[in-house]
Design goal:
By secondary structure, the chain is an alpha/beta fold. 47% of the residues lie in helices and 22% in strands.
């Protein structure tokens, strides 16, 4: 019989950190609310959740790496909102941070989940931060919880 490992959505006893960009805070605060909601709904305790604020999305990886390497959290969820402007700056930030989150996860063995909203317009960003298209903070926390449980099962 084939053996299969699946991660449950049970955050009981889990520790996690949110690294949140202050830039576009009217968007990122909605992501924080969604992530905390997911953590608590799925059995986690707010006392086991650390929120770290950084200036912008570009600064998230360095804080995420310190947290992941420190051995005090089971997962890190990166939260930010990058809206495309007239230049390629947003694309550069999105590509750089996304790659960094993957590298940190691979180096430390701690899941670093990319909850940075990448949007082409402000309207699109608002939709992804808690309206029509859900809340990326909530779904990022779900992914973090599931990955922690997958890793426990390996």
């Amino acid at each position: 019989m084939t053996r299969e490992i699946n991660g449950s959505l049970d955050a009981k006893g889990m520790t996690a950190a949110l690294v949140v960009s202050r830039f576009n805070s009217f968007l990122t605060e909605q992501l924080v609310k969604g992530a905390i909601d997911a953590f608590v709904r799925l059995g986690g305790s707010e006392e086991d959740l650390l929120v770290v604020r950084v200036p912008g999305a570009y600064e998230i990886p360095v804080a995420a790496k310190r947290l992941a390497a420190g051995g005090k959290v089971d997962a890190v969820v990166a939260l930010g909102a990058v809206v495309q402007g007239a230049t390629a700056h947003a694309a550069l930030i999105n590509e750089t941070t996304s790659r960094a989150f993957c590298e940190i996860s691979l180096e430390t063995g701690v899941p670093v989940i990319d909850g940075v909203v990448s949007a082409e317009s402000l309207e699109q960003a608002v939709e992804r931060c808690g309206t029509k298209q859900g809340n990326k903070g909530f779904s990022a926390m779900q992914a973090a919880i599931e990955m922690v449980n997958v890793l426990k099962g390996l």
